[in-house]
Design goal:
5-stranded antiparallel sheet; rod-shaped; 455 residues; Beta-Lactamase; Helix Hairpins; 10 helices; 5-stranded mixed sheet
């Protein structure tokens, strides 16, 4: 992608040149108009002055001498020596009432007949040269005065104005572009400093950025970077906790497995080998459950949302989860009852975490239920949330150790448990903005209630 400096410079210079182009076009248009007005006024004024001279009271002989003197004087003009280069391009001539040419400049164009229409006009002579002319008709004295100016006089003047206007603008624009380039670089210096600071940081450094002073425009960027760094720290912290928990909890089961394996190798009788092998299988099963629970804990940790969670039918989700668990419950001699709400219950929740929470609650209930016991699952609608509860007919809990049941790896009355079931459910409830309650039933057993908010 093009750099910010180039993008900014291109935009600024593009707007600058466009503005200069528009202003130059307007100036040229206005200059042309004003030049035409001034030169037309001069043509008319020259015609009036010439009219005054031609009206002077003189005898015919004196008039003839005056006309001859005019022609001689105008013919002696040497523009490059004692005159102006434009002299040869400005001309006038006068006719009398009979159409006889009385006086004219040497540069005047030739006409087959005197002009008829008075006022300003654009004409082309017999040499195909264009003239801007003014014709003054003096009916009182029978004179027709023609004053003209070559078109290239005005074109030359306009060309000079264009050069004197555009050339400084172009040179100034180049200088201004260089100044803008340096100014943009100075303005982007804080961004360059931030990039250099980030490059200089150690690859494992996750400390927040503290750059002071910092321009207002870069404060949101620093805040966003610090938020990302905090999220990375949180993710790495979860990974470290998971590794620490896994290492801590796997140490004992692996040691036990090693003991059973050694006993199996040292067994001298078939009964001893079978007993060691049974203990070894039990240990493997327990370790497998522990690994699964640890992986579940890692899965339900808060994760950044990459897409919007769709609405699900909570009743259908709970029913599907219970259908999958029913064969296992029947194999343990337990009965399962589901008492749902009587309507479609739409909630914006991930289906997977509902299955995990319900699986752990039902598994806990099954582990503490007596043979032939009944496990009841209920879904009740409240004002802004649903309550999913699982009831069993087990011994219930001691009120003194209620809070400890949510601690990681604390297992009460179940040697095969990993002590993570209720911790997982509590984490899911917190993620959904709710909580889990444990309470003893009056008729015996435990009720675990899990809150699920509708949005």
């Amino acid at each position: 992608m093009t750099s910010i400096r180039w993008r900014t410079l291109t935009l600024i210079l593009g707007l600058l040149f466009l503005g200069l182009l528009i202003m130059t076009a307007v100036n040229l248009h206005d200059s042309n108009h004003e030049i035409d007005e001034v030169y037309d006024a001069q043509l008319a004024q020259n015609a009036r002055l010439l009219q005054g001279v031609m009206r002077m009271p003189m005898a015919s002989k004196e008039h003839a001498q005056l006309y001859q003197a005019f022609n001689q004087a105008l013919g002696l003009a040497v523009p490059k020596v004692d005159g102006h280069p434009y002299e040869s391009k400005i001309a006038f001539q006068v006719w009398n009432a009979e159409g006889t040419l009385l006086v004219h400049t040497t540069s005047a164009p030739s006409f087959t007949a005197p002009p008829v229409k008075p006022g300003f006009s654009d004409v082309t002579d017999i040499n195909n040269r264009k003239w801007r002319a003014f014709v003054l008709d003096d009916a009182q004295y029978g004179l027709k005065i023609w004053v003209g100016e070559r078109d290239d006089v005005r074109a030359d003047l306009v060309g000079r104005i264009v050069r004197h206007t555009v050339e400084p603008n172009l040179i100034g624009s180049v200088l201004l572009a260089a100044v803008i380039w340096l100014a943009i670089g100075w303005g982007l210096k804080p961004l360059v400093n931030m990039a250099e600071t980030l490059r200089a940081r150690h690859s494992g450094s996750l400390e927040p950025l503290q750059m002071n002073p910092l321009p207002t425009e870069l404060e949101p960027m620093q805040t966003a970077l610090n938020r990302v760094l905090a999220q990375i720290q949180e993710v790495m912290g979860r990974e470290r906790r998971f590794i620490a928990d896994a290492a801590h909890e796997m140490r004992t089961p692996l040691a036990v497995l090693k003991v059973h394996a050694e006993n199996l190798m040292e067994a001298v009788s078939e009964d001893d080998r079978r007993e060691s092998l049974e203990y070894l299988i039990i240990g493997v099963d327990r370790t497998t459950r522990l690994v699964n629970q640890l992986l579940t804990m890692a899965r339900i940790e808060p994760q950044p949302q990459t897409h919007e969670t769709p609405n699900i039918d909570l009743v259908a989700t709970v029913r599907d989860s219970l259908v999958q668990m029913t064969p296992w419950l029947l194999s343990k001699g337990l009965e399962l009852v589901f008492d749902p709400v009587d309507e479609v219950s739409l909630v914006k929740v991930d289906t997977g975490i509902i299955h995990i929470a319900l699986n752990n609650l039902v598994t806990n209930a099954a582990n503490f239920s007596p043979p032939g016991g009944l496990i009841t699952v209920q879904l009740v609608k409240k004002n802004d949330h649903y309550e999913l509860s699982v009831e069993d007919e087990g011994p219930g809990i001691d009120e003194a150790e209620r809070d400890r049941l949510f601690e990681r790896f604390y297992s009460r009355g179940n040697d095969q448990g990993a002590g993570l079931g209720l911790t997982i459910v509590q984490s899911i409830a917190a993620r959904l903005g709710g909580k889990i309650r444990l309470e003893n039933r009056l008729s015996g057993g435990l009720r675990a209630t899990f809150e699920i908010f509708r949005s």
